[in-house]
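cron nightly-structures :: item 1 of 1
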Amino acid sequence: MGQVKDKKKARKAGAKTMAKRADLHDLYQAAVQSTEFEIEFYEKRYRELRGKNKTPLTLREDFCGTALLATDWCKSNPKREAIGIDLCSDTLKWGMENNLKPAGADVQSRVTLINENVLDVVTNEMDMICAMNFSYCIFKSRDLLRSYFVNVHQGLKKDGLFFMDLLGGTCTTDVCEEERDLEGWDASYVWEQTSYNPINHDLQCYIHFLFNDGSKLKKAFSYDWRLWSIPEIEEILYESGFSKVHIYWEEFKDNGDPDDEYLEGTGRYRAVRKISQQESWLAYFVVEK
């Protein structure tokens, strides 16, 4: 009874729930971004394709959101520069205050944030451009996606590389929900797919956050995408002028349980041209100009 009374008193005193105290951008970064992995992945692929002694120095992060990747890219090497592009000015401002400024004046001087449409932006030619977290799937027609890819092609140096990721698998075209603990938080992350239209491949998804005090942030982020397939994207990339498309797939290993068909991801990716279908997969495009 005492605990119940204490909770009632806290609510009456205006105590905020964990959900009300949480910062959406902090949660997003913790849930879906892994800049250390991405930077390492980009470097390895660049050296594989452009020479083991070559180091990429310039990166354009399209759909950059809080520009966490652009910031960490410049923190990883004092010679590196980055451009971050996003349509949402409020998100860019948050990134400036919470990612760039804390990184220090030197890093801040090497990151340029642009509040503009990725279809129209014109930048210096870069060593690498990336569009991560399936962000380009907002373009639902071939013409729009091709326009974006043409812009990327124009924004790369002659030996530049373009990086994207894509989700897929048999469960991707179904209504489903996946929940996992959010490391470092008293909360869990929920990815929900609520609808899929097989006629036009429209996919509606949400991110929710559930907190240990029982509070929730439902539909914290909403995504209305076209679920593109790998061959469709490859075709449009070649139509846009790119010379070579590589598909990188995560290596899996048996978890040792004969009664469990689940294969454990290793975190290592290799280039493939043939692979078995899975319930859920995440693939990377590494595209040569």
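cron nightly-structures :: done
The longest strand covers residues 156-168.
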